[in-house]
Structure formats: C-alpha cells, structure tokens
Fold this sequence. Notes:
Helix content: under 10%
Radius of gyration: 13 Å
Number of helices: 0
Number of strands: 11
Strand content: over 45%
Mean pLDDT: 96
Low-confidence stretches: none
Order of helices and strands: EEEEEEEEEEE
Distance between the termini: 37 Å
Shape: globular
Amino acid sequence: VQLVESGxxxxxxxxxxxxxxxxxxxxxxxxxxxxxxxxxxxEREGVATIDSDGTTNYAESVSGRFxxxxxxxxxxxxxxxxxxxxxxxxxxxxxxxxxxxxxxxxTPLDWGQGTQVTVSS
Length: 121
C-alpha cells in the first residue's frame, strides 16, 4: 500500500489549499478513506472521511469549510480547504481503510507520509 500526498504548504488566514493523495496497492474504490491532522502538542484527530459510496463525515471544526472527495478511476483522494484559520495549522495525513467511516471512530489501516499545512494570521 502506498499513499503519496501533495498540496501542503503555507497560506494566510482566509486562504485556500487543496490536498491530494494518490493511492496504490489496494482496491481504492472499495474502502473508506480519510484525512487526519496533528497539531503541535495535540493528539491526532480525524478531519474528514469519505466512504466507498461517497458518504462523507467531517469534524465539527472544519464542517462547512473543508470538502473531501475522491476519484475512484484515478485512485486519488482530495481535501479542499477554504477559509483557513490559524488553528488549522497541523501535519495532515491521508489514511486508508478506516473501518467505521467517521472521523471519531475510524481506525486507519495505512497512512500517508504527512504534509505540513501552516496558516498564518
């Protein structure tokens, strides 16, 4: 299994970023995928998940600002982040095969390498 992330970086508050995660080595279209993040000094938390049927789930802190989507033909997971805030600064991880497909209960089988997102106020 490989999960290769791209699209991180730095942005000012109020700005936007789009994260991508190219997956390989498993049947992407059949599993729940998700995005997690870990801020300095905090535990890793679920940000957004998307099931094989397209059902999505978001953390309350990002609901309405972030959108998760997937391209099952190309095996790519996306995270569109808008209206970014300083508190969104964290290391963001793509994750696969979550089992329960929610940000609270999902337990990923595999992880991407993580990419830093920094939002300056």
